Amino acid sequence: MADRFVETLYKGYAQSFDLKGPPLVDERSAFQHILIFDTPLNGRVLVLDGNVQLTERDECAYSEMLTHVPMIDHGTVERVMIVGGGDGAIAEEVLKYRGVKEVELVDIDGRVIELCRQHFKSVSGAAFADPRLKVHAMDAFEFLNDERAAGRYDLIIADRPDPVGPAGVLFAERFYRLVERALTPKGFAAFQNGVPFFQPDELTDTHRQFAKMFKHHGVYLSVVPSYIGGFMALTWFGRGGALGATPPETIAARFKAAGIATDYYDAAVHGAAFQLPPWIRRLLA
């Protein structure tokens, strides 16, 4: 790897990071290759199987939007499940809410959790020390199949990778049905769905699936510079209502009452995230 890491996600296009010193972690777990290194511009970086998962500088644009949009829109979230998210970034955002009673983090790779607890304390904050957080190094399907998961969670956040190889099961109807079963009657589920500029089929396919399966579903957007390609699509479905339907003044009041500190999300960004450019609307048509 020398003094530079090059990520090649798309044919004919790549991005590179200069390294600041040798890698902190360069090993293979039972599931994937794990790489952690420091950079002059983006801070510390987590890479799994050659794909950038997180950088210290811009993870807020991802973790805050996957968390606070459904949390604020719902209004009374008490129990949350996180699929993946072994870096602790989303858990840290969820646990900012005083009303949250329980967070279950389910990531199949315990080694990722262990290494991120060691090397990404700036990202996870005090999340792993919070007694409300329970960490499970196991398959999310096994966890969701347990009858105890049925109807339990107000919010499920799937911090999933792209649908390549084994991760493809996290984009299948069976997974979505298990997630739906685990939600409370007014619960929401939110998902990472790629960068539609380079991955249009990923968004289109998911939207078609959701349209067949759920009455309430949709897309909102974030911009995460390290996820090359511009807008990132975040998809959702709800058992009893729609995200983005709450009046702006209610969103603003709830956000103010929550008293949480953010870097990317606020009430104005909440509303703007649902305004899709025409080319993305065409992908959904």
Biggest β-sheet: count, sense, barrel?
7 strands, mixed
Total count of domains: 2
Identify the CATH homologous superfamily of the largest domain. Answer: Vaccinia Virus protein VP39
Characterize the overall form.
globular
Chain-averaged pLDDT: 95
**The top level CATH class name of the largest domain:** Alpha Beta
How many alpha or pi helices? Answer: 10
How would you describe this protein?
There is one protein chain. The chain is α/β, with parallel strands linked by helices. It has 2 domains: 52 residues, Spermidine Synthase, Chain: A, domain 2; 225 residues, 3-Layer(aba) Sandwich (Rossmann fold). The chain has 10 helices and 13 strands. A 7-stranded mixed β-sheet has the order 9-8-7-10-11-13-12, sandwiched between helices. Strands 3-4-5-6 form a 4-stranded antiparallel β-sheet, with helices on one face. A hairpin with a 2-residue loop joins strand 1 and strand 2. The radius of gyration is 18 Å and the shape is globular. The model has no long low-confidence stretch (mean pLDDT 95).
Indicate the topology.
Elements: E1 4-10, E2 13-18, E3 25-28, E4 33-39, E5 43-48, E6 51-55, H1 60-74, E7 79-84, H2 89-94, E8 102-106, H3 110-119, H4 121-124, E9 133-136, H5 140-145, E10 153-159, H6 173-182, E11 183-192, H7 200-213, E12 216-223, E13 231-238, H8 248-258, H9 267-272, H10 278-284
Parallel strand pairs: 7-8, 7-10, 8-9, 10-11
Antiparallel strand pairs: 1-2, 3-4, 4-5, 5-6, 11-13, 12-13
